[in-house]
Amino acid sequence: MPRSLRNVDVALRRAWHPLCRSSEATSQPRAFTLMGEPYVVYRSPSDGLRVFYDRCPHRFAPLSLGTCEGEKLRCAYHGWVFDAQGKCVEIPSLGPNATLPARAELSGPFAFAESHGMVFVAPESPLTPLPSLASDADPAFERGDLEPIVTRANAGLLADNFLDMAHFAFVHTGTFGAGEATEVGHYTVERDGYTFSAVYEHHFANREDPGVAAGTRALIQRRRLTYRYVAPYHLELALDFLDSGGTNVIGFFLVPVDDETVRIYSSIWRDDLEGSSERLREAIAFEVAVVNEDLALQSRYYDLALPLDITSEVHVKADKTTVELRRILRDLIDAANACD
Ligand code: FES
Ligand SMILES: [Fe+2]
Q: Is the distance from the beta carbon of residue 89 to the nearest atom of ligand 1 less than 6 Å?
């Protein structure tokens, strides 16, 4: 069993990972890297989304430098042309009507899929499920996407940070943390395969509630935090304001780009903005500030690895979610290694 998990671990090839946003997949090829492997992504007019390794079988040139010609992709180096299934259909240097080498075809991941406005790939047969986000399909919610953030970080440590309930008052002093209690009360964690959910109901000072300013509601109110985690790096937090009403949802899709880099795709869902694009913009800017507070610390870790040996760190009661994260990732790595 590995004692810690780095961004590039071959066992993680047996899981679904986000590669890019749906909006980043266009009619021309683009390169996106996952765990040190570059992929080319484009949309063919009739076959839709296409994902291959970003490497031409001829001289391994990046296909993302090529050009889409309708259904087909032409390599920028010697002009070989590949159809939407990745089969080579033209080699200019051989002239017309030539017999093409059988091995002249593109290779790709085991599977790719598009859901929740994201493109996901499973490099090898996945052991984990594709994440699903209930609020994404709920018309009561408006969605706002943060611009992708690229940072020096470990994806496991970022997942740990997202699930952590004891850092708010210390890290988020410039955003929401000032009014947060430092003590974390009892909460429940329920594991289901390579996923878990955790529910924490507590009291907090709701300084943003107009009802408090108007004197119709007390400052100290009830709030429910519901965390949903799908291995390896899909995270969701729903905040239900039980007294003032309304739900805020924050989603995190982490791409382990290479050993020391993570691309963060984050979206928010709000059911309390009454269609105001101005308020949605403000909410996105606030969330960017929250993420930057986390990254100021997370990007400075000396060892970019998530410890999987539960005995190597010191845990307390508040850390139940992040201990569960380690257990699930350890089990996933063990299961993936056992498949080989
Ligand atoms: S490297 Fe792509 S055609 Fe030669
Ligand atoms: Fe945080």
A: no
The two structure tokens encoding residue 247: 């739900």
Domain CATH for 75: 2.102.10.10
Q: Which of 99, 106, 95, 57 is nearest to 77 (CA)?
A: 57
Residues 112 and 153 in one domain: no
User: Which structure tokens are listed for 190?
Assistant: 């329920």
Of 67, 96, 122, at which residue does a domain stop? 122
Residues 107 and 161 in one domain: no
Pocket test for ligand 1, best of 52, 54, 78, 89 (most atoms within 8 A of CB): 78
Q: Domain check: are 30 and 100 in the same one?
A: yes
Helix (H) or strand (E) holding 171: helix 168-171
- Give the three-class secondary structure for 152: strand
**Chain centroid offset of residue 164 CA:** 17
User: Number of folded domains in the chain?
Assistant: 2
| Type and span of the H or E element at 112 | strand 111-115
Q: CA-to-CA distance for 262 and 152, rounded, in angstroms? A: 6
Question: To test ligand 1's pocket by mutation, which of 53, 56, 69 has the most ligand atoms within 8 angstroms of CB?
Answer: 56
* Number of CB atoms found within 10 A of residue 36's CB: 12
Whether 6 maps to a domain, the answer reads: no
Q: Is 337 helix (H, G, I), strand (E, B) or coil?
A: helix
Q: Domain of 301?
A: 134-339
Say how far apart CA 258 and CA 38 lie, in whole Å.
Answer: 10
How do the pLDDT tens digits run along the chain, 340 residues long? 558 999 999 999 999 999 999 999 999 999 999 999 999 999 999 889 999 999 999 999 999 999 999 999 999 999 999 999 999 999 999 999 999 999 999 999 999 999 999 999 999 999 999 988 878 888 899 999 999 999 999 999 999 999 999 999 999 999 888 778 899 999 999 999 999 999 999 888 888 888 999 999 998 899 999 999 999 999 999 999 999 999 999 999 999 999 999 999 999 999 999 889 999 999 999 999 999 999 999 999 999 999 999 999 999 999 999 999 999 999 999 999 999 7
